[in-house]
Write a structure and sequence with these properties.
The complex is a heterodimer of chains A (300) and B (399).
Chain A lengths: L2 H33 L6 H17 L5 H24 L7 H23 L4 E2 L3 H4 L5 E3 L5 E3 H23 L1 H11 L1 H6 L4 H27 L1 E2 L5 H14 L4 H20 L6 H15 L14
Antiparallel strand pairs in A: 1-4, 2-3
Helix pairs in contact in A: 1-6, 1-9, 1-10, 1-11, 2-3, 2-4, 2-9, 2-10, 3-9, 6-7, 6-9, 7-9, 10-11, 10-12, 11-12
Chain B lengths: L1 H28 L17 E6 L7 H20 L8 E5 L6 H15 L3 E4 L3 H13 L3 E4 L14 E3 L4 H15 L4 E7 L3 H16 L3 E8 L7 H10 L3 E4 L3 H13 L7 E3 L7 H6 L7 E4 L8 H14 L5 H20 L4 H9 L4 E3 L2 E5 L5 E4 L1 E6 L4 E7 L4
Parallel strand pairs in B: 1-2, 1-3, 3-4, 4-5, 6-7, 6-8, 8-9, 9-10
Antiparallel strand pairs in B: 10-14, 11-12, 12-13, 14-15
Helix pairs in contact in B: 2-11, 3-4, 5-6, 11-12
Classes of the chains: A mainly alpha (300), B alpha/beta (399).
């Protein structure tokens, strides 16, 4: 294999990994866009999604597609409950209070799963037994792509297009955008902002849950602390794309995945996390609004 | 709107309920005894052996198995009339894989229980943490499991009885390059794991000394799940075999990725870090054919070992593993040293222990070299077959 083919292979690896970051990053960015809260429990919601998917497939023996939808639904309900219990009472307090509450929820969730399932990594049943066989297809220059990567990228793309549709074309989406622009005015215009915030949490978390199941299928393993690092990386992706911006989160995720994979490709795999978080620091120093972010004037 | 508010309340109450229920369940599951010390039937002037290990924590399997092996050895010794007229007695404790707790336990062993020897800990980390206290107290310690460097250097009372990486690694690489004829090797190291970093050095030296070539070196981290980039690099390198020095979780996942990327023939060769059922639970068919080395295998035993295996099965209802065998041998080595020295004083019998050569234990022949390091022969090469380890070959160690 020559340089081009390796480049293409690593690019595909990167896009596949980046799609999972993007799915998580969307939840961060949507919640931040609407209530200016960095929801640090979001990575844990992704982890819970993966476990719900695993439980549905292995214990309840349902079809993987139903498990996928079930995990999304569960994450929606869970995130809405979390919002009501842990964030809504703090809506009018200092932003730091809600942030600490989010960190608390994150610790509770990961420890709860650790308690229930144990610290051992759990095997996600191989997709070959439930959906299709893993095959590789030749691309140009001898590079290959496998069916799992195609699945991951296509499902992520469908979910992101669906999200764009909801936000841009539906009434709920319009209300979301209005609430994110100006919370108080939106309320004055007759929008039930609490309900819109719940919708935002629900949609963002459904994407994270979907991401969890996809990653379970893709890597074949789920673990109670699997939300931690991808959660941080997705946060980086959201900042890179401009926190609060939906297209920004998508591109930020994919760019981060590709950069990480290129780091591995040139032989610096030990530094992949360092480089990802190095990017976070650089973006915050040089362009705090990110690639797609707009300058926000602080409303006091 | 009122309806949805009601739903929210119901949901939140459900969530709180589920949290409290789980909390209660958890408390019931974990009795977590702080320190459990059981004393076996008291015989007059029994010689006490301390068991140092983990019975409820992350390394509980190693600890429990070592203890079971020790119990059987003590039974055998006592049934034969004990050593120098005294019976052996085990003093148990559980440190829950906690270094501070382990230090408290050995303090108690040395100062209040007055043990003559401590068997354990199966891990290098806790052995190194407790050895200075035991050595200071002039009690013999035999770790039946610590394979890492810097253990016996701690003091003249510290021993171990296990296949060292510096013995098993080169022997395995010799077999790989010369017998199987794979000269182009991809070497993967888990860089945040001391054990893996150390073993990779040993592997690399072994490959080069036997005329092999390391065509690519890749690094991963413990806890990673994405290995697509590294595996793509290995695919490009044209390696004939993957040598991995890390643990079973990453090993299984790497092989899964290898098969996913269409490399269907290549196998993984690794150290005893791969030896846990998790390896094939995660890897499935992808790890079939993978090879690792070990100091013990219940397959193809010598007649003496076969007797041990049969008696073990009769007592515990399962085949013994490496830790059972090493725990058994550790107690037997103490008994042998006491007999040779004609004294149960650790200050005296430690020298007899250091002189033991070719002791025919159930976990292989054990000799101690000039630095008191054990040399165990043969090395067992194991291969995954139908989701379990099976014996590939017994390789005698070149001294």
């Amino acid at each position: 294999m020559d340089f081009t083919s390796n480049f293409i292979v690593q690019l595909i690896n990167g896009i596949a990994l980046g799609s999972t970051y993007a799915l998580i990053a969307l939840g961060y960015t949507m919640v931040y866009g609407i209530i200016m809260l960095i929801n640090f429990a979001h990575g844990e919601i992704y982890m819970v999604g993966a476990f719900v998917g695993l439980a549905l497939v292995t214990i309840f023996k349902v079809h993987i597609i139903i498990a996928f939808l079930g995990a999304m639904l569960f994450c929606m309900l869970m995130a809405v409950s979390i919002e009501i219990i842990a964030y809504r009472p703090l809506r009018r307090s200092k932003r730091l209070a809600a942030l600490i509450s989010a960190i608390g929820i994150s610790i509770i969730l990961s420890n709860l799963v650790n308690l229930l399932v144990g610290p051992k990594p759990q095997t996600f049943p191989s997709i070959e037994k439930i959906l299709f066989e893993i095959k590789s297809f030749d691309l140009i220059a001898g590079a290959q792509i496998n069916t799992l990567q195609i699945l991951l990228i296509i499902v992520s793309a469908i979910l992101m297009i669906g999200l764009q549709y909801i936000v841009k074309r539906t009434k709920v989406g319009k209300a979301m955008r209005a609430t994110s622009q100006d919370y108080d005015t939106a309320a004055l215009m007759g929008i039930n902002v609490n309900r819109i915030i719940s919708y935002t949490f629900a949609i963002g978390s459904a994407l994270a849950g979907a991401g969890g199941v996809l990653v379970g299928i893709y890597f074949g393993v789920v673990k109670y602390n699997m939300g931690m690092l991808p959660g941080m990386k997705a946060f980086t992706a959201a900042v890179l794309g401009g926190i609060g911006s939906i297209p920004g989160a998508m591109f930020g995720g994919i760019i981060l995945g590709v950069i990480e994979m290129m780091t591995v490709a040139i032989g610096f795999s030990s530094y992949r996390d360092a480089i990802a978080f190095g990017i976070l620091i650089l973006v915050l120093l040089i362009k705090p609004t990110g690639l797609f972010g707009k300058q926000i004037f602080k409303k006091v | 709107m009122i309806k949805s508010r009601k739903i929210f309340w119901v949901l939140s109450i459900l969530l709180i309920l589920s949290l409290t229920l789980v909390g209660c369940g958890g408390q019931k599951e974990e009795p977590a005894p702080k320190e459990e010390v059981k004393k076996e039937a008291k015989a007059p002037a029994a010689l006490k052996i301390g068991f140092l290990g983990d019975l409820t924590g992350d390394t509980a399997m190693y600890g429990q198995n070592t203890l079971d092996g020790m119990k059987m050895a003590v039974e055998d010794i006592n049934a034969a009339g004990g050593v120098l007229g005294s019976n052996f007695e085990i003093v148990e404790a559980d440190h829950r894989y906690d270094k501070a707790e382990a230090a408290n336990i050995v303090q108690k062993f040395v100062n209040s229980d007055k043990v003559i020897a401590v068997i354990g800990d199966p891990t290098t980390g806790i052995t190194k943490a407790t050895a200075p206290i035991i050595n200071q107290g002039s009690v013999v310690q035999i770790s039946a499991g610590a394979t890492g460097p810097g253990v016996v250097e701690i003091g003249p009372f510290i021993f171990r009885n296990t296949l060292l990486d510096t013995v098993g690694g080169p022997t395995t690489m010799d077999y790989l390059v010369n017998e199987l004829g794979w000269k182009k090797v991809a070497l993967i190291t888990a860089v945040n794991n001391d054990f893996s970093v150390g073993l990779s050095k040993i592997f690399k030296e072994g490959i080069l000394n036997n005329g092999g070539e390391v065509v690519i070196e890749e690094s991963v981290q413990d806890g990673d799940t994405d290995f697509s980039g590294q595996v793509s690099n290995i695919k490009k390198s044209g390696a004939e075999v993957i040598v991995f020095s890390g643990y079973y979780t990453e090993g299984g996942l790497i092989m899964k990725e290898v098969r996913k990327q269409g490399m269907n023939e290549i196998i993984m060769v690794g150290g005893d870090g791969l030896q846990a059922p998790t390896f094939w639970e995660l890897g499935g068919s992808a790890v079939e054919g993978s090879v690792s080395y070990a100091g013990f295998s219940p397959e193809q035993p010598t007649p003496e070992v076969e007797k041990f295996i049969e008696r073990f099965k009769a007592k515990y209802g399962k085949a013994p593993d490496l830790f059972h065998a090493q725990g058994y041998d550790a107690v037997m080595l103490v008994a042998e040293a006491i007999k040779n020295a004609n004294s149960a004083d650790p200050k005296v019998f430690k020298d007899a222990l250091a002189k033991i050569q070719d002791y025919p234990g159930v976990s292989g022949n054990t000799s101690f070299d000039a630095n008191r390091e054990p040399i165990k022969s043969p090395v067992y090469l194991l291969q995954v077959k139908d989701g379990n380890w099976s014996l590939l070959k017994k390789v005698p160690v070149k001294k």
